[in-house]
Design goal:
The structure is a single chain. By secondary structure, the protein is α/β, with parallel strands linked by helices. The protein is built from ten helices and eight strands. The protein has helices at residues 22-35, 55-65, 79-88, 110-118, 135-151, 168-177, 184-191, 214-228, 231-260, 270-302; strands at 8-15, 41-48, 69-74, 95-98, 123-131, 160-167, 195-202, 309-313. It has an eight-stranded mixed beta sheet with strand order 7-5-6-4-1-2-3-8, with helices on both faces. Strand 2, helix 2 and strand 3 (69-74) form a beta-alpha-beta unit.
Amino acid sequence: MLEETRKKITIVLPSFNEEENIEGIYNTLNNLFNEKLIKYDYDYLFIDNHSKDNTREIIRNLSKKDKHIKAIFNAKNFGQFNSPFYAMIHTISDATILMATDFQDPIDLIPTFVKEWEDGYKICAAQKKKSNENAFLLFFKKIYYSLIKKFSNVDQIPMFTGFGLYDKEFINILKDLNDPTPFLRGIVAEYGYKVKIIPYTQGKRKNGKTSNNFLSLYDAAMLSFTSYTKMGLRIATFFGFICSMLSLLIGIIYLIMKLIWWDRFPAGTIPMLLGMLFLGSIQIFFIGLLGEYILSMNQRIMNRPLVIEEERINFTDEI
């Protein structure tokens, strides 16, 4: 009797200056597969976004000892979205799991992903219900996700960062997208099917410092907003119409009052000045918002490559 072919799972691990976490995440994942997922074949795909520390050297050393480790080293830093997406579309396993290398995504959730996948789900999306991160930052993230979910053209998954399991069928969809600015969270919401949402509590970074800052968080927010909502432009249209009607009404009232009390009613310049400053600031705000939409369109029109590779390690499979 022929031995049944084992299903294969690839763990995608994006890295940027994670020298203190690489060996730890590798050892912990090894223990998981050797103890709880022994019937599955597996490999790890590290994609390094041009780290400046010893991250690459550690990955090289591990890959020499263990052929389960594959690696892609980017020639430059191509951002927090392009790099993991690029790694995902270069997997050929039956399932791909995307997770952070800093231990914030709980490894103990992987067996749950696999069980739900075996039950027929094509995507197991981890939804962050609680977090040990900064409470102030978490509060604003919840507001942001609520607004995106409310105004988006598709049914977004609140507090979903991309951590989860993706069946090969969905990975093939990603390969066909040809999107130069992929936003995985929105793509899952738009094209994902048979999705199982699994709540979890996000932990703290085990070692090192996060590379996220205000600009990277803002970039993520605006990419989502401009890619999956029309509300920004429509608010500008509606607000402009309302302001123009109010201005016309105030102008008519001022004219009537001046005609009735010609000698006693000085129209003055202060109301006009305040009105001009208000409308001017609103115009600048919406011009900036329009610029964000144009920037998003421009990036897609240029159709630049997601990533330029500098080096590959242990890639022997055809993809």
